Amino acid sequence: FKGFILALMSSGFIRASFIIKKKGLRRAAVVDQLFVHYGGHAYLLEPLWWLGLITVIVGEIPNFTAYAFSPAVLVTPLRALSIIFRAVLAHFTLKEMLPKLGVLGCVVCIASSVKIVIHVPLEHLITSVRKVWDQVAFLLYVGSIIVLVFILVLPFAPQYGHTIVLVLTGMFSLMDSLKQSSAIL
Question: What range does the domain containing 77 cover?
């Protein structure tokens, strides 16, 4: 139960941080519209953006803590609820419209999370580092993720990172998968 509550708290904080940061970016854009839109850093002078950054850091703390109290198969799907928090907050605070398919997606996300939470399987605990080293598949996974991230960071990010969103998205997604899989242990 503690892990469940911590995961929900984490989702709320993390998605609220995106709303706060977006408001900070909008304020910075009003002050210096060209500077922000063409790769400037005026948002760094905006206190609201910094508050959003601090909020995301505070939101990650309960997420990591939740893994200590609950199995990863419970905590990780609950992060999907953060999408719903963000959609609702964006609707009310930023006046962004949520289309009918977006509402349907939120309903499917809630139903899926509830189904996973209800049917969480028992977890086999790893009690020593030696057991981790004995898991060849996990070590191959970690190694391949590290290699892929370096491939994206070194040759592709400098050349294509500003124009092709998949390069940066791929790097962050791979690193997040590594973080999530290490939290399982």
Answer: 1-123
pLDDT in tens, the chain (185 residues): 787 788 878 877 887 888 888 888 787 776 655 454 555 666 777 888 889 889 888 888 888 888 777 777 777 777 777 777 777 778 888 888 878 887 887 788 778 777 777 776 665 555 565 665 667 777 788 889 889 888 888 888 788 877 877 877 788 788 777 766 655 55
Same domain, 145 and 97: no
Residue 11 shares a structural domain with residue 87 = yes
- DSSP symbols for 23-71: HHHHHHHHHSHHHHHTT--GGGG-HHHHHHHHHHHHHHHHHHHHHHHS-
Global confidence as pTM: 0.53
* 23 and 44, same domain (yes or no): yes
